[in-house]
Amino acid sequence: MKRLLATLLLLSAPVQAQVSSTAAPVANSSGSVTNQAVQVVPSRQFTNTYGGGISCQGATLNINPFVSTTTGWADPYEGYYSDPVYDTLDIVGAFDSEGNAIPDGRPDNPGSILFYKPVRTGQKTNFSINGGITATISVPLDRSHVRTCRAAAEKQVALLDAALADKRLNHEIARLKNCGNLMKEGVMFHPDSPYAPICADVVLVNPPGVLPPHTHSIPTSVKRVVPSDDQKQTQ
To answer: Cα separation of 179 and 200, whole Å?
Structure first.
């Protein structure tokens, strides 16, 4: 019971305390930040057109080199500043037991500047060059239509090759026919003419079933007759 009463008295009694707390934190921060960004703009994919209204797009690789520069300086520019050097001479101000002047711990000429000392500030112009390469790959997402377009493009190219071969055949046949007719009529390019190679590979031959004009030589032989014995006696 006594312990309980003592505890209650301690808790209920007023407490006087003097607390002195001084906190004066000082934080200085200075700096500069330069943010640079390189924007990559997606370009349009290359489109291949094969005729007949067929055009296909494929994957595209874009490579973009870049160079960026930054310059930083302070204005006004001060390479040096003058730092005052104060007179800290302390010779008099107090006396010893014998009455001689002795230093008292205080400058004899407080605030007196002896001279100014140049101090380098370290201020300078910052210049930087940054370079690099950005690359982007553009891939079409609808692969099924791309494959269909490529298959149609292959067929379109085959049709164009066939049409070109047909025109080539018509050209060669017309050249062969015209050159042959002219050769039958006895008309030809001069060998030194620049157009002589047009009919250089055309050969005029005899048509099947038709005999060309020709001549034959008939061989002749001489037969010698030897008379018999009866003929010799008659003679």
So the answer is: 9
- Cα–Cα distance measured from residue 170 to residue 160, given in angstroms and rounded to the nearest whole number: 15
> 69 with 129: CB under 8 angstroms?
yes
Q: Which helix or strand (DSSP H or E) is residue 6 part of?
A: helix 2-12
36 neighbors 132 (Cβ within 8 angstroms): no
Q: What pTM, to 2 d.p., does this model score? A: 0.41
C-alpha angle 27/32/36, rounded to 5°? 145
Reported residue count of the chain is 235
- Check if the beta carbon of residue 28 is closer than 8 Å to that of residue 39: no
Contact indicator for 56, 149 with CB cutoff of 8 Å:
yes
DSSP bridge partners of 119: 81
> What token pair was written down for 226?
């030897």
Tell me the two tokens of residue 154. 């292959």
The answer to whether 71 and 125 are in contact (CB under 8 A) is: yes
Q: Per residue in 54-105, pLDDT tens?
A: 888 777 777 888 888 888 888 888 888 899 999 888 888 888 888 888 888 8
Residue with tokens 């018999």: 228
